[in-house]
Design a protein that fits this description.
Number of domains: 2
Strand order of the largest sheet: 4-3-2-5-1-6-7-8
Strand content: 15-25%
Number of helices: 14
Oligomer: single chain
CATH topology of the largest domain: UDP-N-acetylmuramoyl-L-alanine:D-glutamate ligase
Helix content: 25-40%
Distance between the termini: 29 Å
CATH superfamily of the largest domain: Mur-like, catalytic domain
Structural class: alpha/beta
CATH class of the largest domain: Alpha Beta
Length: 429
């Protein structure tokens, strides 16, 4: 049997993309693993916010006494974070066992089809579904990788589907319009199964409405069927009121900043209540409160240090950047902030840099470390007039030397945020 390091290396050695976007490969692998995709799930997609929303749902259902799986991507500190039960990453030994079981299923399939293979995400998804089934979780919350309809996770029939937001990202796969992106994301809505969504742009709402009509699904919309009020900062977190018909919760706390995190928390509450009803599970108001109070999420306006004040954020598309800037304004008001920015070249770099340049923040550019997709310093828009550094470490050192009493946010890519977090926190979290 492989070691843990050999297991992770073998997973990462699998191809990233496949020639077709169908589900035939993962369905074949899942069938060989006993069809664990037929268990109880919640399915979450969105251009931004799907990770913290999925985590919020899992925390709420855990607080109610259920054993809950959580599947997300990418990881920030260690690979195991992608597959969790009750917010505990899969143990190394269990990952090795799960991979060995998945490998054995692959070998069996190759007896009749020597060319059978799956890509990396299909493999990890199948492994996660098998592990959740083997561990007998009561419910698993599944975050979509990219899009929705053709995503490898879209082989489940969830208790409820969730769409957190729709914006332009992954244009090569999802298209260049809001309607196209929303159509892909709406593909996770299943016949006669409810869907909970944020208040989306008009073109996105139209795409969801079309899918809901096709599937006969119940549709709950933020701002119409449920909503929040009286949101306010409380330390490095927020309190808000939640209401849905006659159901009301006052002064709910979530330890995340940014107005969008209140909306994500509202989606988590709504989806959890729908899932609990479908499972005939008596979810209590105090369990919702207790779950959300634990819902931290790494690299989303995450404070790593108070003195000096260092924050990281993984916003990597125009919508994510706008949300980050709103959160910066919320927590720092008019205080001058240094933004140390590293972006991947396949993102909308021009729009991202333009949005950042339009602020009063001090904008410094760095490469995303150890990533072949990183935007080269010389290729950044306005690189000639903006301050550049060979590494984020050099930029952070310059900030601490020149502006030690001012906050700094390292942002633009989850890969940059991950590198900063691993370096500054090490094994602390």
């Amino acid at each position: 049997m492989k070691t843990y390091d050999e297991t992770v290396a073998a997973i990462h050695a699998l191809p990233r993309l496949a020639k077709t976007g169908g589900h035939e490969r993962i369905l074949a692998l899942l069938h060989a693993l006993g069809d664990p995709q037929h268990d109880r799930y919640v399915h979450v997609t969105g251009t931004n916010g799907k990770g913290s929303t999925a985590s919020g749902i899992a925390h709420i259902m855990e607080a109610s006494g259920l054993k809950v799986g959580l599947y997300t991507s990418p990881f920030i500190m260690r690979f195991n974070e992608r597959i969790m039960i009750d917010h505990q990453p899969i143990p190394d030994a269990d990952l090795v066992t799960a991979a060995a079981t998945t490998d054995a299923a692959m070998a069996k399939l190759r007896e009749t089809d020597p060319d059978f293979g799956v890509n990396e995400f299909e493999y990890i998804t199948a492994l996660a579904f098998w592990y959740f089934h083997q561990q007998q979780v009561d419910l698993a919350v599944i975050e979509v990788g990219i899009g929705g309809d053709t995503d490898s996770t879209n082989v489940i029939t969830p208790e409820v589907s969730v769409i957190t937001s729709v914006g332009l990202d992954h244009a090569k796969l999802l298209g260049h319009t809001i309607k196209s992106v929303a159509t892909h994301k709406a593909g996770i809505i299943k016949p006669q199964r409810p869907v909970v969504t944020a208040a989306l742009p008009a073109d996105a709402m139209a795409a969801v409405k079309k899918r809901v009509a096709e599937t006969g699904s119940q549709w709950l919309v933020a701002g119409q069927d449920f909503g929040t009020s009286r949101a306010a900062l409380d330390g490095w977190g927020q309190r808000f009121d939640y209401q849905a018909g006659t159901f009301h919760l006052s002064q709910v706390f979530v330890p995340l900043v940014g107005n969008y995190q209140v909306q994500n928390a509202a989606l988590a509450i709504a989806a959890s209540r729908v899932a609990a009803k479908a499972m005939n599970w008596p979810l209590q108001p105090q369990e919702i409160r207790r779950g959300l109070a634990k819902n931290t999420w790494p690299a989303r306006m995450e404070k790593l240090s108070d003195d000096p004040l260092i924050v990281i954020d993984g916003g990597h598309n125009p919508q994510g950047i706008a949300a980050m800037l709103s959160a910066v304004k919320q927590v720092f008001n008019d205080e001058r902030v240094t933004l140390i920015v590293g972006v991947l070249a396949d993102k909308d770099v021009k729009t991202i840099i333009a949005e950042l340049e339009a602020t009063t923040a001090r904008l410094w550019l760095v490469p995303v470390p150890d990533n072949p997709r990183a935007e080269a310093l010389a290729d950044y828009p306005d690189a000639g007039k903006l301050r550049t550094f060979a590494s984020w470490q050099e930029a952070l050192a310059a900030h601490l030397d020149e502006f030690p009493d001012e906050p700094v946010v390292l942002m633009g890519s989850l890969y940059l945020a991950s590198a900063v977090r691993q370096t500054l926190l090490g094994s602390q979290r």
